[in-house]
Amino acid sequence: MKKIIILSIFLIISISIFGKLINESFFEMDLRQALSQISYDTGETIIADDSVGGYVTIDLKNVTIDQALNLLLLAGGYSWTKINGVYFVSLATPSSDKFMYFSTTTKYKSLNYKASDIVSLLPAYMRKYVNTSGDPYVLTVTAPKDMSDKIISLIKTLDLPKREVELEITVVETDENTFRKWERNWVYNSTSTGTASYFSISNEWFTTNILTPLGLFSGSFNLNKSSEDLKLLSQSNVKAINGMQSKIFSKTIRSYQYVLNGNTYYKEIPIGIETTITPTIMGDKVVLDVLEALYSSEDVGQDIPTAVQQGIQTSIAIPVGGRISVAAMSFTSLSSVESKIPVLGDIPIIGKFFTQLDYKDVLKRVILFVSVKAGE
Q: How far is 90 from 101, CA to CA, in rounded Å?
């Protein structure tokens, strides 16, 4: 008896708070008729505009009118709102003149990314509810409340702090003959085996070690002596944000003077290297989009050399803590070769009379190494 009384009290309270509970079964019934039936059961007024249509199959048991409308309208993408005690059902899209009755507007200020970048990551059906005009780091979401809450929740998930990666970029120059010799004449140690590559630069020495299942191949080269085969052109450390482009360049401008039709002109030719890198952190690896540009000049038998630009664009994956040779480009350089008579050419002051300086074209190689030193 007590249980019946308690259930009765609970039912009375539920009806007073939520209204009459609905128990209906619809099988392939016209949606507008189903809404009319719920209106009749609850005594509430439900108005559906001309956009509402379709059929519905559903079994409703002990649900409130709000819950029933949510379930009935879900499949067709319709929404409902209550205006002056009347339920109104429509297709709540921004292009509808009735959208203002269903939507709420929420402002969100991005902490890490521009608003336009966040919107580009949203599903297409959500983007129509988001506006990015004005402040580049502020967006507004205008949508039915449930949809608005889902969009804001997803935006907060995307607006995470940007990750950083520290890169070391090394550019080395060598002549073509040394490059080929370097590829053939490795120091070999059969006692160490495995699969790894190690490159290091310490003071004036460049050291490379490649560990293979057959053994360890290694070599060391002096970078700073002009008589040596390798020369360090640049070494840079840069912190780059995940997905953001970084550019490192070492260039100079050579100016050449020439006379044409009695007038003096100057031609400027860029000489140097430029590296553009965009990192993408993927787990314990970093994918690098690399663009390497080499600016040089070429003697074409005229007084003024021709500007030459070469480039390599590629994508590579490097584990955090690893280093890799990314690219090697060739160019022709005019190099001086000194020849002198033994003994006499070494005598101070007068030795220059027994010394001859010649110039010749030498094929050079520029090699780009990239390492990922750390990631956050």
A: 10
d(CA 44, CA 57): 22
DSSP 236-295: EEEEEETT--EEEEEEEEEEEEEEETTEEEEEEEEEEEEEEEEEEEETTEEEEEEEEEEE
- Per residue in 210-246, pLDDT (tens digit) is 666 767 767 666 555 444 466 777 778 888 888 888 8
pTM listed for this prediction: 0.48
Hey, what are 28's tokens?
A: 């392939």
CB 314 within 8 A of CB 327: yes
Cβ-based neighbour number of residue 139 at 10 Å: 25
CA distance 188 to 218: 7
Sheet order of strands, 205-212 included: 187-189, 215-222, 205-212, 196-202
Q: Which residues pair with 215 in a beta bridge?
A: 212
Can you tell me whether residue 210 is helix, strand or coil? strand
Q: Which two tokens stand for residue 228?
A: 């040596």
Question: Is the distance from CB of 171 to CB of 364 less than 8 angstroms?
Answer: no
For 79, counting Cβ atoms within 10 Å of its Cβ (0-12 exposed, 13-18 middle, 19+ buried), the class is buried
Q: Do 176 and 365 contact (CB within 8 A), yes or no?
A: yes
